[in-house]
Design goal:
This protein has 199 residues and is mostly helical. The chain has 7 helices and no strands.
């Protein structure tokens, strides 16, 4: 139940994102601003939110929550857990190394977020197809969306969403995926409990 609760809490990053945007110096360019700008601690004229510490804490929290929910991923194939775990570590690293303080470390955290998390979802979908079609569809769908958004973002194709919108679509997909699987786990346990015979 702890793992499911952790994954159900991953959307906290969406709420914090909006809250930190609200403290931006001037109107926040959500379609053109990089997500990492919200965690920029330098407070430059064109990149500053008074709540940047909260954004960085939210990144770290997202990584920890994803890690805590790894028991919801089947032990086999192990590479699914490994990929999602690497994405979780990436979020933690992005949070402790803001873009203006250590860009190399920041990028080292960003890469597994873009690639490992989305790949892990797709593999989970493929693995789940034979025994859990609903999970397979959800994992495959969110993984495909995240992977496509990653490719479009890196290729400079934003389809009207801007670089900020496409980036969020790419990196937030695993958080949405995890929230869905966490909720499904809780509902499945509840249904099982109601169906259990009385003793």
């Amino acid at each position: 139940m702890t793992a499911a609760a952790a994954w159900m809490a991953t959307p906290q990053v969406f709420v914090v994102d909006l809250w930190v945007q609200a403290a931006w110096r001037g109107p926040y360019p959500v379609l053109d601003g990089y997500l990492s700008d919200l965690g920029n601690t330098a407070c430059l004229p064109d990149a500053c939110s008074a709540r940047h510490a909260l954004m960085n804490a939210s990144f770290v929290c997202l990584g920890l929550l994803l890690g805590m929910g790894l028991p919801l991923v089947p032990a086999s194939p192990r590479r699914v857990r490994t990929l999602v775990g690497l994405a979780a570590l990436g979020w933690c690293l992005v949070g402790v190394a803001p873009e203006n303080e250590s860009m190399p470390l920041h990028l080292a955290g960003a890469l597994p977020i873009f690639f490992c998390g989305n790949a892990g979802m797709i593999l989970d979908g493929l693995h789940s197809w034979s025994h859990d079609r609903r999970r397979a569809v959800w994992s495959g769908f969110t993984g495909a969306v995240g992977s496509a958004a990653t490719g479009l973002f890196l290729g400079g194709q934003f389809l009207g969403l801007g670089q900020g919108g496409m980036e969020r679509l790419a990196v937030y997909a695993p958080a949405l995926w995890a929230a869905g699987l966490g909720a499904a786990s809780v509902l499945t346990r509840a249904d099982t409990g109601r169906a259990a015979p009385l003793r």
